[in-house]
Amino acid sequence: MNKQSREVSYFLSSQYFSDGIRITLSILLPSLLLAQFDQLQAGMAMSLGALNVSLSDAPGPVMHRRNGMASSALISFSVTLITGFARMSPYTMGVEILLFSFFFSMFAIYGNRATSVGTAALLIMILMIDRPMDTAGVLRESGLVLAGSVWYSTISLLVSRLQPYRLAQQALGQCIHEIAKLMAIKADFYDVSTQLDDNYRHLIAQQVDVSEKQDAVREVLFKSRRIVTESTRTGRLLLLTFVDVIDLYEQIIAMYFDYSDIRERFGKSRILDQIAHTIRRLSVELDHIGLAIQLPVPFHKPIDINPILEELKRHIDALGDQDGSTLVLKKVLVSLRTVSQRLTALQKNLVSPTLNPIDNEAMEYGRFVSHQEIDLKSFLDNLTLDSSVFRHSVRVAIAMLVGFVITKLLPYGHHSYWVLLTISVILKPAFSLTKQRNIERILGTLAGGVIGVLILTFFPNKNVQFAFMVLLMLGTYSAQRINYIVMVICVTPFILILFKFLGVSYLGAAEERFFDTLLGGVIAFMASYLLFPQWESEQLKKPMQAILKANVRYIQLLLDSLSGRPINLVDYKLARKEVYVTSANLSAAFDRMLSEPKHKQRNEKLIYEFVVLNHVLSANIATITSARLTDEPKVYATPLLRPVKRALRILTESLHKISATTAKQSQDVNALDINTAATSLTDPSLLEQLNFIQQVSSDIGKIVERLMTREQIIKKRHQSA
After folding, report:
1. Alpha helices in 106-232 (DSSP H)
2. What is the C-alpha to C-alpha distance for residues 252 and 340, in angstroms, rounded to an integer?
3. Where, by residue number, does the polypeptide cross the bilayer (predicted)?
4. Given this model, what pLDDT does residue 679 score?
5. How far is CA 366 from the centre of its chain?
6. pTM of the predicted protein model
């Protein structure tokens, strides 16, 4: 199966596509059924309720999804009721928009699912603004919205009941798919035609995607009682596979070498092309594993990589010393063999699994996922300008009120709520995200409008138009969580066709929708730039501090293993997870900074070096530490321990400079010099690796020093000004 076929298969078997089918049917059926009894308006109200609660039905444990949908249904009912009466006066409506926009935006402090509930509440408020209803109509509409919410929730929970492991399989398959992409990027480092800096940028950006997918799998697996506590065969297989996949990911990350040196020494030979080809073959095999888990389908016949590895070994041996020592190439070969063995184990486990009993208590899965408490104290604690959520909520409230006032002052059209809808979906906490959404929204609306007009002009048959509308609905709800511009391109013609069925001029609606989108985009952009802006260059200290702290913990475990102290497996995996997560967070923040106005960016080159060096550091720590988890504890000689202690001290001092770390951490580091025992165990190859770790740590320390010096200069300039 080629790459394009795999991509299509991944999408068609993904959670996104199955969600798209479920949401489309759940929204469409009430309107279609009630239209047969001349109750189309009632059906559309139910469809609106179904659409609204679907926003809060994000992937996750069934219990969390059920609670999210129940909360969304009750809030939607209340908001519909309040808005129905508030809209009778523009002044009360303005007050509601201001208060509700702030209140529901504050839900972001409780995590992604609560944010979705808040977004759904704002959506139902916006869509009710221009609905002319009397008192009886408001009560009836609210009841129908609630009925539609219950309808969708019932369908969603029933599907989960019938396929309890499907979501976990899809999440795990997508996670493996992203890791396979990262592995393919690793192959580019051996391609002399590529730029190393570009490769690092692609690698670090892909790590962000992998981290997101890993968190999604942890959320589904470790918070699902059926999977963690019950000893079903499918649940155990999913758990064991995910644990093996994370170990495989560590091995892939640990495949770091001095690529510039390798290119310089062996670039003229064909050996680097062969290494790159081998890595890509391994990546393809890994991709097939993810697809087999996600579909699921009969597993394709695995390709035996061993002949390829043996041929690579012969070519390495044939080089001899003509291009210098081939030791580094032999290390690459060892890493590839290890990855190949792990892939083979995964393949065998899928074909004929041998499931050993899992000690769930020893694994302590609960420590690998975050737990968000929903309480009033957290809400009150965030009512300060120091809180990014509070600043964003104020920004949304003001922008929404401005948009509402403008639509009342400009006497045009009948769908002015599109302005508020545009503001609510475009305005994000980070300026770069708002800018990106703005561009995608405008371009997607323009492209979608053209598509909609073409469909309605050249396909006058209503049955054909309805078929197009269903396909566009499916595209809209399948892409809403993965590709915003595709969603906008699909939703615009879908709405135009819907308006055509309702007797509205589609050309006028297309023109009005584009104008409203443009107006809403301008308001959102100005609000993001002018109202309590939060520039990433001012926020980067936190993720930099977090990754330094994670690497300090990681290198501490390395020192413990070299000093003969046994390492707890769960503690090691938690430290490893923290390194991956903080690295992804820093990379994402850095990318957002690069999308901001040029005059708001600071020290981008130094921060890029900081990101890359921390990636190199954690990769080398993983290479050594992971190899010692299964070995008997050994105590190494002082010359081997010295570079690790120095590296630990440098990183701790750098952390202190960024975040004013307590003195206790430094004392703990110094204490290691006194308490560490020394023996005669030495290892020249290991010493070389440890010296490299010290050198990378030293480079990180120098970058931190330069960054802090520049920050002090900027601060003095501001004070003098």
Report:
1. 112-128, 135-162, 166-188, 196-222, 225-228
2. 11
3. 68-86, 98-129, 393-410, 441-461, 481-502, 514-532
4. 44
5. 20
6. 0.87
The CATH number of domain 539-662+679-720 is 1.20.58? yes
Assess contact for 513 and 447: CB atoms under 8 A.
Answer: no
Could you give the residue ranges of the DSSP H alpha helices within 480-540? 484-501, 506-530, 536-539
Closest CA to 250 of 335, 164, 126: 335
The dihedral over CA atoms of 284, 288, 290, 293, expressed in degrees to the nearest 10, equals: -170
pLDDT in tens, 287-316: 999 998 988 665 567 778 888 899 988 888
Residue type, 476: T
Cα–Cα distance measured from residue 265 to residue 522, given in angstroms and rounded to the nearest whole number: 54
Give me the phi and psi of 683, to 5 degrees please. -155, 105
**Contact indicator for 576, 550 with CB cutoff of 8 Å:** no
Of residues 640 and 403, the one with the higher pLDDT is: 403
Residue 27: both structure tokens together: 């929204």
Q: How many CB atoms lie within 10 A of CB 582?
A: 23
CA torsion sign for 423, 426, 430, 436 is negative
Average pLDDT, the chain: 85
* Tokens (6 digits) for 314: 């012969």
φ and ψ at residue 310, rounded to 5 degrees:
-65, -40
Q: What residue spans define the domains of the chain?
A: 1-162, 178-187+226-359, 386-534, 539-662+679-720
Which of 495, 595, 496 has the alpha carbon at shortest distance from 536?
A: 595
Closest CA to 286 of 203, 192, 213, 182: 182
Burial 295-322 (b: 16+ CB within 10 A, else e): beeeeeebeebeebbeebeebbeebeee
Asked if residue 603 lies in contact with residue 710, where contact means CB atoms within 8 angstroms, the answer is yes
CB-count burial class (<10 Å; 0-12, 13-18, 19+) for 521: buried
- Supply the angle between the helices 306-319 and 327-351 in degrees, to the nearest 10: 180
**Is 636 strand, coil or helix?**
strand
DSSP 681: B
Q: How far apart are CA 28 and CA 470, in angstroms?
A: 8
DSSP character string of 321-337: TBTB--HHHHHHHHHHH
Residue 177 amino acid letter:
H
Q: Which amino acid is at 358?
A: I
- Measure the CA angle with vertex 25, ends 295 and 123; round to 5°: 110
Closest residue by Cα to residue 675 from 566, 557, 559: 559
Instruction: Look at residues 516, 510, 514, 480 and name the one whose alpha carbon lies nearest to residue 498.
Output: 510
Gap between the Cα atoms of 518 and 442, Å rounded: 7
Give the three-class secondary structure for 3: helix
Phi, psi (deg, nearest 5) at residue 681:
-70, 125
The per-residue pLDDT for range 622-660, each reduced to its tens digit, is: 888 877 776 666 665 567 788 989 999 999 999 998 876
* Identity of the residue numbered 568: N
CB 519 within 8 A of CB 419: yes
Residue labelled with tokens 């050996």: 271
The span from the CA of 193 to the CA of 138, in Å, is: 65
